[in-house]
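Researcher: I need the complex structure. Ligand is 5-O-phosphono-beta-D-ribofuranosylamine. Inputs:
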Amino acid sequence: MTRLVVLVSGNGSNLQAILDACTAGEIQAQVVAVFSDRPDAFGLERARRSDIAAIALAKCETQDRPGYDTELADKVAAFDPDWIVLAGWMRLLSAKFLDRFPGRVVNLHPALPGTFPGTHAIERALDAYQHGEVAHTGVMVHLVPDDGVDSGPVLAQEVVSIQPSDTLATLQSRVHATEHRVLVHTLTKLCTL
Ligand code: GRF
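Model: Output:
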């Protein structure tokens, strides 16, 4: 069975979508561990409730980025993953991590390729829409070959409409619903390779 390790930093609704799809047999894989850089991330609680290893690994102040990424890579490698899924993981990973898992790290971003890289992408898209700069936004799933911000070979993308009546909350829920579906669909294909 294909082995997935999922990295989260927050609520974990995308992690939950993966867990539910694995349980339903839609994704032919098992999540063998969930890591978070934030010990209070609800995503870890979701893992515990599914009896999956839930590991908090906060970066301590004295640790530099290569040191943290190497420690994280060692701990992730111990679960022998086929794929590493960044599902709401909010740290940039350096080559110290990525070079250990070449071609096997997948990230989710709540915007279309090349648009709104980094944090607060949904807010920024709504603001740009309200200034007439964009007509829609979207979501994407991509490979992570290097420490570029939300960039890399695109595996899937989907446009998400923005309505004049949209608030941040209504747009967020539409974007997240699309993310859950696109991420599960992409992993379903990856896990049959
Ligand atoms: C998602 O929108 C993801 O694309 C972004 O952070 C959010 C995490 O949501 N990087 P959740 O924790 O999976 O609910």
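Model: Summary of the prediction. Residues 160 and 175 are 7 Å apart (CA to CA).
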